[in-house]
Structures are given as structure tokens and as C-alpha cells.
Amino acid sequence: MTSDKYTYRVMWSEEDKEHVGLCAEFPSLSWLAKSPEAALRGIRKVVADVLNDMKKRREKAPEPLSSRRYSGKLMVRIPPEVHRKLALEAEEENVSLNRLISSKLAS
After folding, report:
1. How wide is the angle at C-alpha 6 spanned by C-alphas 5 and 12, nearest 5°?
2. Among the listed residues 53, 38, 37, the one whose alpha carbon sits nearest the alpha carbon of residue 3
3. Residues 97 and 86: beta-carbon distance below 8 Å
4. Which of 35, 40, 51, 81 is the most exposed place for a label (fewest CB within 10 A)?
5. DSSP string for residues in the chain
6. How far apart are the C-alpha atoms of 17 and 59, rounded to whole Å?
7. Contact between 10 and 20 (Cβ < 8 Å)
8. Contacts for 92-97 with beta carbons within 8 Å, 24 or more apart?
9. How do residues 12-39 score in pLDDT, each as one tens digit?
């Protein structure tokens, strides 16, 4: 597994006054740097190093988000009054409750 397939993000850390590089598949890892480019390079290097260590120890690396399969099914518990409100809204728009919720989530 190479570090290229993982999901990275860089954001500003007000607390550290630097950019922080993060990897979604390795939430405990981060890298601080003065520029966003350096933060991205740093976190990619850290992930590559961790993957090499995992390989040496014959540990299973996390599956990249980009290669995971999703069923499209999602169960969410909501309060009955919210369910009623959404059902009424779906009825008024003449769409299924599923379509209404899917549309709201996509927005």
C-alpha cells in the first residue's frame, strides 16, 4: 500500500499558528508547517513512514476511503417530531421521504 491513495487535508490551526496536515485514514497523525504545501508534504511523509513500519510488522494498513465500497443505505435515528415534519414536507412536495432526505443531505 502506498501513501498516495489516502485522503489528505490541510487546514490552518489558530492554536498553533501554522498549517496542519491531516490524513483521514490515520486520525492520530498530523504535521505542522508554515505553509500549506509543507504541511501536505509532511503528513504524506509521516503516513509513508507509518505504512513502512506496518509492513515490517506485518500489520494490516487501513483501507483508503477512495477504494471503500458504500451500500447507499444509512440508518439514522431522529426524534419523532422531526420524522413527522420531514414526512409532511415530502408529502407536500409529492416525493418520497427517502428522496427528500437524500436531497437535503446532498445539499
Report:
1. 135
2. 53
3. yes
4. 81
5. --GGGS-EEEEEETTTTEEEEEETT-TT-EEEESSHHHHHHHHHHHHHHHHHHHHHTTPPPPPPGGG----S-------HHHHHHHHHHHHHHTS-HHHHHHHHHH-
6. 35
7. yes
8. none
9. 999 999 999 999 999 999 999 999 999 9
Return the sign of the alpha-carbon dihedral for residues 29, 3, 35, 21. negative
Q: Residues 33-68: pLDDT tens digits? A: 999 999 999 999 999 999 999 999 999 999 999 999
Residues of the chain with CATH 3.30.160: 3-66
Q: Is domain 3-66 given the CATH code 3.30.980 in the classification?
A: no
- The cell for 100 is 427528500
Give the residue-averaged pLDDT of 61-86: 94
CA distance 36 to 33: 7
Query: pTM of whole model > 0.90?
Result: no
